[in-house]
What we know:
The structure holds 2 protein chains of 2 kinds.
Chain A: H1 3-16, H2 21-36, H3 72-77, E1 87-91, E2 94-99, H4 102-106, E3 110-113, H5 114-128, H6 139-147, E4 149-155, E5 165-171, E6 177-178, E7 180-186, E8 191-200, E9 206-216, E10 221-229, E11 234-244, E12 249-256, E13 261-270, E14 276-285, E15 290-299, E16 305-314, E17 319-328, E18 336-345, E19 351-360, E20 366-375, H7 378-385, H8 391-407, H9 413-428
Parallel strand pairs in A: 1-5, 4-7, 5-8, 6-9, 7-9, 8-10, 9-11, 10-12, 11-13, 12-14, 13-15, 14-16, 15-17, 16-18, 17-19, 18-20
Antiparallel strand pairs in A: 1-2, 3-4
Helix pairs in contact in A: 1-2, 2-6, 7-8, 8-9
Chain B: E1 6-16, E2 19-30, E3 34-38, H1 45-53, E4 59-67, E5 70-71, H2 77-83, E6 85-88, H3 100-111, H4 120-133, H5 151-165, E7 169-173, H6 181-194, E8 200-205, E9 218-223, E10 226-231, H7 233-242, H8 245-251
Parallel strand pairs in B: 3-8, 3-9, 6-7, 7-8
Antiparallel strand pairs in B: 1-2, 1-4, 4-5, 9-10
Helix pairs in contact in B: 5-6
Bound molecules: adenosine-5'-diphosphate and magnesium ion (MG).
Amino acid sequence: MSVEVYQENIREFSSKRQEPEWLRQKRLASLALVAELDLPKLEKTNVKSWGFTDFVPVPSEQSVQTLQQLPASIRDSIAAGDVGTGLYVQKNQESIFEQVDPELQKQGVIFTSLEQAIQEHGELVEKYLLQAFQNNEHQVAALHGALLSGAFLYVPRNVEVKVPQQAIFALAGNRTAAFPHLLVVAETGSKVEVIANYFDYEGRPTVLNSVIEVYVKPSAHVQVTTVNHTSSSVVDTIYRRAIVERDGHLEWVIGDFSSGRLLSDQTTYLRGEGAHVGVKSLALGAGSLRSNITSSISHFARHTTSDIQARSVVKDEATNILNSITKIEKGASQSDGQQSGKVLMLDSEARGDANPILLIDENDVTAGHAASVGRVDPLQLYYLMSRGISRAEAEKLIVFGFLDAVIREIPSESLQNHLRQIVERKFDQ
Amino acid sequence: MSNRPQLVIRDLKAKVEDKDILKGVNLEVNGGEIHAIMGPNGTGKSTLASVLMGHPTYEVTAGEVQLDGQDVLEMEVDERAKAGLFLAMQYPSEISGVTNADFLRSAINAKREEGNEISLMKFIRELDKKMDLLEIDSSFSQRYLNEGFSGGEKKRNEILQMMMLDPRIAILDEIDSGLDIDALKVVAKGVNEKRSPELGVIIITHYQRLLNYIKPDFVHVFMQGKVVKSGGPELAERLEAEGYDWVKEELGIEDETVGHAQV
Ligand SMILES: Nc1ncnc2c1ncn2[C@@H]1O[C@H](COP(=O)(O)OP(=O)(O)O)[C@@H](O)[C@H]1O
Ligand SMILES: [Mg+2]
């Protein structure tokens, strides 16, 4: 793809959506950056040949009126439990189905496409869009800034949303691409849980370039779950950025189950005193997956706490690099940053690496890390087999146990079971 | 036709890291019998237990082991278990993320035909009953397998597994070590509960203490990687009263240990 071709394309795309000038300019400026910037630089993963720009302009999509009209593979991805409220479904670049709870709407909750949100709440969107995540980080970020399309979730002050809000980003077609952008703003004292699913369902070469921005205002409680489950021909990148203000509380639950190329990055800035972030990151890689998963926390304020729990299993010839970075800046005294990153390799060709990084510029803090890379313990296998369990079943128990130590810490039981199901299906493939 | 199990060990030799540890073990255990294998530390008792179960570290160099006429040494570890062999280990592994209940149910179902899995209700009923008998707290079934367990809890868990899995030959390796007298009684209660013509038991211990609560039919002294003396329960009593020196003297043994014993 060339910048010139895309300039025209973006103007057209933008005007079709009747976007305001600020957004059109942002897109064009981002596009200009694509040519200038380098690809992201990653610890121990070379992404040069991944093909982030290997796509053709994306056709438009028909929206549907009811859940039943959605393609079956999309319907199946909706997490079990209460699906009655809060659902946003995007196919490639367009919203094709939305459902909101009228009660929540009355309370001022917004959950709709960015396109729609910009028409109705332009100033609100402008205030937050591409702030925590910047389009000039690298070429992939610039591409995203140029072509983003997604959803906006806004929870007003002190509103407590009791049912998880789900966003589904599905890819279909050959050499298509999507640039899903999920923007979440939780105002002071509010509470919300969001689940975002990313997958393709035709198994063709596609590019998925996703970003989530989360703004946790003072004393708000937010949980964001992402499940990436793309097939082996997909280049899947996801950047998650969050800013947590005073006494805000953010929980990330990250499920990385993609099978092709995966670049998964979570970065949280603890800006306000007493802010907390927890990260539960699970990965299961198979086939010839190449993946790089990073969880990064920056503590800027006093009494901030963070905890990263990352577990990755690699089988077949899959490779996963697992990075955990905890940064405590000068002045962020009495803060606590903990991390543990563990990789379990199942087959002799599977490769894994865990890089624990603590960067501490303040004396009065506590921090700890644990990292390990290993294979299944033959003595554990022996113990299980000595009770009649077959080698394959024993290995499965050990792997599930390895992941379950993190899964069972996830606050929602239905989400726990949903993740267990995905792990089980993927493991048996 | 009787359904009595029979384990036959003939001239079994094994090594680890080029050290010969087992040097020709002979033993026959039948259903209904309780055999005690006694001996000082470092004489190869646990190695015998491990070799019988198929521990990956040990290499059998000679001899044979038959369970009900089947060649045990040819079998994979899980096949040995399915054939009815059970080992309560001296140092059981800890497995994070796998609950005791899930593990036990997998183990029970592994022995059953597909489609004939134990129902959840029945499983829970059985488990509760046995946990009661072993005075194990009910929260135990949801804890991770042996993770963070005290020594005593691990031992009870091994016995619980034995009770749930109904083996034909059970080997209990130092099931008494580190237990106080009350815990010891509880563990013995579990073993006695299972006593029947359909179960043969090998109790490995270096104290006679446990044998006050589980009466053995045969007692064997283990030294230098093999059985050096056999007798009835009175042998255990004499060992308790007089120690092992008289056996060594009688047999002309200076160093009873094998490999490079602990210094
Ligand atoms: N896994 C092992 N690696 C190296 N040496 C071993 C191992 N297991 C046993 N040995 C050797 O065998 C000897 C006997 O050990 P063991 O069978 O545990 O004796 P016991 O149970 O009678 O105390 C030890 O002293 C040691 O030299
Ligand atoms: Mg021993």
